[in-house]
Amino acid sequence: MERLCTPWRFDYVTGAIKEQGCVFCNRLDAPDKEHYVLHRGRYWYVILNLYPYNNGHLLLVLNRHLGLLGDCTAEELAEMAQLFGVMEKALTECYQPHGVNAGYNGGTPAGAGIPEHLHLHMLPRWSGDTNFMTTIGETRVMPQTLDQSWELLHPVMTRLVAERA
Question: Are 117 and 101 in contact (CB under 8 A)?
Fold first, then answer.
């Protein structure tokens, strides 16, 4: 029998570690690599999801505490659109997905895990990426660690942002 070990998820599934304050606000001044921040813009930052659906699951996080997209300023929305395009290009270049899921959950009833701090999701998807582990075992197999994902995506994000400037 094969064993799939994912010890980094234990604290998440058991709720053993509760971070004080807002997890997104806590990363505003945190070291980038240590917290998997891929890019910091004027209004938003891009970070790897600590509990991803699959490798390359990115979050675009607003630099201020705000719950809904409709409350953003025009400048925030403009940078959001630009960074969403960069994120898509980076995921396409690094992972060659067959498609991309993107969006946000506005409020707890819509599925937002942290409804008081606006963040948008983008993740690569592949045909056939749902298999018996997901369907029967309710488990996702992650072929990369977050460190490996950061090392792959960071230089590409940096280059793509510079090309857009």
Answer: no
- Among this protein's residues, is 117 annotated catalytic? no
**Is residue 9, in this structure, part of any structural domain at all?**
no
Tell me if 7 is assigned to some domain.
no
The CATH number of residue 112's host domain is 3.30.428.10
Residues β-bridged to residue 106: none
Q: Distance between CA atoms of 47 and 24, rounded to whole angstroms?
A: 10
pLDDT tens per residue across span 86-107:
999 999 999 999 999 999 988 8
Alpha helices in 37-145 (DSSP H): 74-95, 132-135
pTM (predicted TM-score): 0.84
Report H helices in 15-164: 74-95, 132-135, 146-164
- Tell me which of 39, 98, 117, 119 is the catalytic residue: 119
Which structural domain range is residue 110 located in?
19-164
CA distances from 145 to 5, 8, 10, 33, 87 (A): 12, 9, 15, 13, 19
